[in-house]
Amino acid sequence: MATTSDISIGTYIRFNGDICQMMEWQHRTPGNLRAFYQGKMRNLRNGKLNEHRFRSGEVIEVLRVEIHELQYLYREGDNLVCMDQTSFEQKYIPVELFGDAFKFMKEEMIVQVGFESDQAIFASAPKTVELEVTYTENAVKGDTSNKVMKAATLAGGAEISVPSFVDIGTIVRVDTETGAYMDRVKK
Questions:
Q1: Could you read off the pLDDT of 139-148 as tens digits, one per residue?
Q2: Phi and psi torsions of 181, nearest 5°
Q3: Do 77 and 56 reside in the same domain of the chain?
Q4: How far apart are CA 159 and CA 138, in angstroms?
Q5: Global pTM value
Q6: Domain boundary residue, one of 14, 48, 63
Q7: Residues 42, 173, 21, CA angle at the centre, nearest 5°?
Q8: Which of 52, 95, 160, 162 could be stapled to 166 by a disulfide with Cβ–Cβ 3.0 to 4.6 Å?
Q9: Which residue segment(s) compose the domain that 71 sits in?
């Protein structure tokens, strides 16, 4: 257990039964009132931000989280088999830890996974990925007056909106957090 003076930005804590990462941490002394700590934290289970005031000296459960970069090999049921690139040890990571970003992942991709006592508690895909467009409709000729977007299916099955000039076989860069088209990759 730690107290409020031991907390800093980036620290992982257990708050209301959930694992949270501290995003902002400030010590405040307003006028003639008692000092307190103001913390803004991200819940790792659902990604929501939460603000809370802690009394000075309050006991907080600090978690020791190790972040590993693993290579995603293949999916097996509700788990992804990932390999540690230094020890070549294979670990099973639940698919739900990746959230919506999983539909943009492809095999042999490097992912970050946070462990607490050999238990995977959060995972994140790379910020951007490059995927090939496997299906899209043809654009209507002459409709270039504004940004015309059309639906496209990517390798892996994810569907996104792309500009009208993107055709089948084009490789596009996609933001995995928002699922938005970023740009066309020229090779």
A1: 766 666 667 7
A2: -65, 135
A3: no
A4: 16
A5: 0.74
A6: 63
A7: 10
A8: 162
A9: 66-124
